[in-house]
Amino acid sequence: MAITRLPSAGFSITIRIAVTADASSIGRLTTSVGEAGAIVTALDVVDSDPTHVIVDLTCDTADAGHADQVVDALTALDGVDVRKVSDRTFLLHLGGKIEVTSKVALRNRDELSRAYTPGVARVCMAIAENPADARRLTIKRNTVAVVSDGSAVLGLGNLGPAASLPVMEGKAALFKRFGGVDAWPVVLDTQDTDEIVQIVKAIAPAYGGINLEDIAAPRCFEIEARLREALDIPVFHDDQHGTAICVLAALTNALRVVGKRLEDVRVVVSGAGAAGTAIMKLLLRQGVGDIIAYDREGALHRGLTGLNSAWQWLAENTNKENYSGDLPGAIRGADVFIGVSAPNLLTGDDIAQMAKDSIVFALANPDPEVDPREARKHAAVVATGRSDQPNQINNVLAFPGVFRGMLDAHAEEFTEEMAIAAARAIADVVGEEKINPTVIVPSVFDSRVAPAVAAAVRAAAHNPSPLPAADPGPADLPEIAANASATP
């Protein structure tokens, strides 16, 4: 099933056009762009003469092919000369997105002598005598490694380390912008689990935390588990835990909107890979009524053979009625759908079969599991991962504040108490008096979010409290197995 993709700032283009200087020329340009399905976001006059006007027309398109269609439509107009087309996303990436700047002045010999030799030797000796001083006297106190092998870059697949670098740069920029955390991309030219673990262990002394990113399942689970065991700094796989925190926060407020309780709802999760498994584990910890996990093998249920250990555990501990059919059948009568899988799996008619006041989180990017416009005709609350739609569930709500809190607390590990505290903090930033079907999470630009999350994580680090018992209880929930599967 195909749907019309929505225009996005991620495919924004600026077109330099020379057009005849008559009263209708500018209107013809904007009308043509609109008829081609794009959205005009700016139109600037660059130059003019008695017969022509040169303008820069900026518009959002749906993808590269759509951008070409818009340009072709403009080129076909009489009296229009398309002179140059610039992809604004590529322009933004020229030369990279981050840089290193010095925190100290180096203006004379005196300053150089203290920042470097001979003065720096004294600091080195102090750390050698007391290694814990590295957190106080070096960048370690505020620096995170963003580690990837490029094996699962966004939804694009195994692109390798060089192609993953723009994403890791962006992640580092978000760390700084929203959490005040200095982060640096570490892209590795290996996809061997043992090598990745050894490399990260070797570089860990320079960092106060490790953020694993875009590493394919099942290796990501084993890598995280082994690094957590080996290191005395937090190891956080954002594809898992950041997503789970944000989904729990959004679901908390969505349930408030529709007046349902977590323990009473049935949830269907499409995608039992890194993100989906972490979401389901966190919801189970919180006592969700029931979950059906759906992936390439279908609905995970008891009696399904040939499953890896993580899927086998899900089959045995979710899906109380042992449903074994397709995805549309799974969501029939369900209260909540959470998609972390693939585009266009469901239709609006499928959503219409869900329970009254249903909740739909269709988070596949850039195209969600169901067209949000169709889903809103039937569901009470709809969220996506897109910035151009209401209720964007974006990991930037979580990871900057989570790491800010862990670094401030000198935490040695990331815990489930921190995850739950972070989710509650994100949900509470909105405020119960302000939530509604189109506002269940705060804006990523809400300046209150990261400090609130950081404070909650610091409190959880300093005063960990037992999690409320659920069925199954925390003791019965295994670590994610090393041979778990990726999302479809």
From TrEMBL:
Domain spans labelled Malic enzyme NAD-binding: 240-462
Domain Malic enzyme N-terminal: 95-228
Pfam families listed in its UniProt record: malic, Malic_M
Gene3D superfamilies named in the record: Malic enzyme, N-terminal domain, NAD(P)-binding Rossmann-like Domain
Keyword match Nucleus: no
EC number(s) reported in the record: 1.1.1.38
GO MF term set: oxidoreductase activity
Keywords associated with the record: Oxidoreductase
Ranges for region Disordered: 464-488
Protein name (Swiss-Prot/TrEMBL): Malate dehydrogenase (Oxaloacetate-decarboxylating)
